[in-house]
């Protein structure tokens, strides 16, 4: 989590978690199936550790849909 432990270790762990969620998402046809991935993994949306999730085809970041003042 943010604020505890070594930043590099935490970032690596979050990246592994993101990659694992992407592996699970590959089981679904996101054009046909509605899948929700909820949570922030204790990280900011622009972080490198969330990149595997936020760049996965068919997965949308709801924060991108909010007006700037709402996030």
Give the percentage of residues in beta strands: under 5%
Provide mean pLDDT, rounded.
84
Query: How many helical elements?
Result: 2
Q: Write down the secondary-structure element order.
A: HH
Structural key phrases:
2 helices; single chain; 32% helix; 71 residues; flat; mainly alpha; 0% strand
Please explain how this structure is put together:
With 71 residues, the protein is mostly helical. It contains 2 helices and no strands. It is flat, with a radius of gyration of 13 Å.
Quick overview:
This protein has 71 residues and is mostly helical. 32% of the residues lie in helices and 0% in strands. The protein is flat.
Could you outline the blueprint of secondary structure elements for this entry?
Layout: H1 7-25, H2 51-54
């Amino acid at each position: 989590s943010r604020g505890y432990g070594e930043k590099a270790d935490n970032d690596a762990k979050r990246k592994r978690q993101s990659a694992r969620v992407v592996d699970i998402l590959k089981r679904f046809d996101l054009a046909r199936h509605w899948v929700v991935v909820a949570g922030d993994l204790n990280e900011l949306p622009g972080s490198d550790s969330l990149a595997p999730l936020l760049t996965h085809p068919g997965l949308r970041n709801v924060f991108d849909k909010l007006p700037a003042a709402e996030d």
